[in-house]
Amino acid sequence: MTYHPKSDFMQVMIERGFLADCTDYQGLDEALTKGVVPGYIGFDATAKSLHVGSLIQIMMLRWLQKTGHQPITLMGGGTTKVGDPSFRADERPLLTPDQIDDNISGIKQVFAKYVDYEKDGNPALMLNNAEWLDGLNYLDFLRDIGRHFSVNRMLSFESVKSRLDREQSLSFLEFNYMILQAYDFLELNRRYGCVLQMGGSDQWGNIVNGIDLTRRVLDTEIFGLTSPLLTTSDGKKMGKSQDGAVWLNADMRSPYEFWQFWRNTTDADVGRFLKLYTEMDIDECERLGALAGSEINQAKIALANAVTTLCHGAEAAAAAEATAREVFEKGGVGDDLPTLELTAEEIGTGISIVQVIVRAGLAKSGKEAKRLIAENGARIDDAPLTDAGLMLDAGALAAPVKLSAGKKRHALVKLA
């Protein structure tokens, strides 16, 4: 990247590693120096929370506002009814309108922590594309919008091509998704003066479609910018951990577990993640990322604290660090650990340790729990757990029991 930006926003995007591609670097940079630029990212409501995989986009919106521009968080109340087929092997399960509304209310909680909807001069906007998509007349839409799309071109997009090359079915419903997303950009430009769409690099084709459509219909100059699709240095998709998705909502992933996810970052990823997921000065990110040996652990704690503070607040970050210290350094039982509460009825005459490990979220199945025990990876109250046939009765749980899977994952089990 040899382009030297004039605008603060583009400088941040390039310096901190957010930028994968842009439809017109210079044009966007110029627009950003001339006044407030409204920019949006769309989020489909396929679950009650977004996960860490969406955090790079949320941080882009945060930086857009911090550099004086207007972030628009667009909820896909309409597009979720279709489902984005991009780079998927199969069709998404269709959700009911009630499920979608429920998911949107869950997702909204996260955004308020990262962008300010009340800010003077450039308040963030929270919009829902159901506002214009739900009332569309199909024939009018086909005539006015559909005529601008070439099926030949749509078939050439990598997200569609990869599905067809594998001879996997792509329904007409999903094929319409990219037209609806393009139409979102047109409507956002028409209604709110939005001139920038951002997203992951898997959205490049959809973003370009929206730009082409808006230019054809409104003759307006608009821009697209994508971030790299992040994988960890060991090739794993960002947002997943051993025990499933790393959700951003506290009721789906406790602040302690969230903190722990970042604390467990691979050494090689620390510097990069500090730049992307925190607001620490670039020089400090590079200094911390360059630490070696046991010193890198301090950088990981700094990363975990900074990311958790943004998502869950400083108090939650401090509590998570204190719990981690108590659990790992002193071998104690931290109050903030993920906790499984069992009733006397559930325990009955005894409940198998394998079942408890699964229910505590330390293994996905009984088979995995048994393998964990067989490979000496399980501990109970910090002592090796070797008997997969162990039964716990109410007496054994008179005091909370600490279960561990490996060195880094722990849970408490206690009587409700």
TrEMBL record:
ATP binds at K240. A motif ('HIGH' region) lies at residues 45-54. One of its GO terms (molecular function) is ATP binding. The keyword Translocase does not apply. A motif ('KMSKS' region) lies at residues 237-241. PROSITE patterns: S4. L-tyrosine binds at Y40, Y177, Q181. Catalyzes the attachment of tyrosine to tRNA(Tyr) in a two-step reaction: tyrosine is first activated by ATP to form Tyr-AMP and then transferred to the acceptor end of tRNA(Tyr). Belongs to the class-I aminoacyl-tRNA synthetase family. TyrS type 1 subfamily. It is found in: Cytoplasm. Homodimer. It comes from the Bacteria. This is Tyrosine--tRNA ligase. Its EC number is 6.1.1.1. One of its GO terms (biological process) is tyrosyl-tRNA aminoacylation. Keywords: Aminoacyl-tRNA synthetase, ATP-binding, Cytoplasm, Ligase, Nucleotide-binding, Protein biosynthesis, RNA-binding. The gene is tyrS. GO terms for cellular component: cytosol. It is an enzyme of class 6 (ligase).
